[in-house]
From TrEMBL:
Database matches in InterPro entries: PyrdxlP-dep_Trfase, PyrdxlP-dep_Trfase_small
Molecular functions (GO terms): threonine-phosphate decarboxylase activity
Protein name (database record): Threonine-phosphate decarboxylase
Keyword vocabulary terms for this entry: Lyase
EC number, as in UniProt: 4.1.1.81
Amino acid sequence: FRCLRQGFDLKAALLGHHILIRHCENYPGLDRDYYRIAVRTEAENRRFINALTHVLQG
């Protein structure tokens, strides 16, 4: 997905919640505003969404 929040390091913010995401800047046509996320379980997905909501609202 893409995060356009100027000057915001989403990767670092989520790492503070023990969630690691990946920049997609090495994919053709993408830059550091694009991220790759992978979750395995429904519980992990809920944890990711809760953390993402927290960092984007805070």
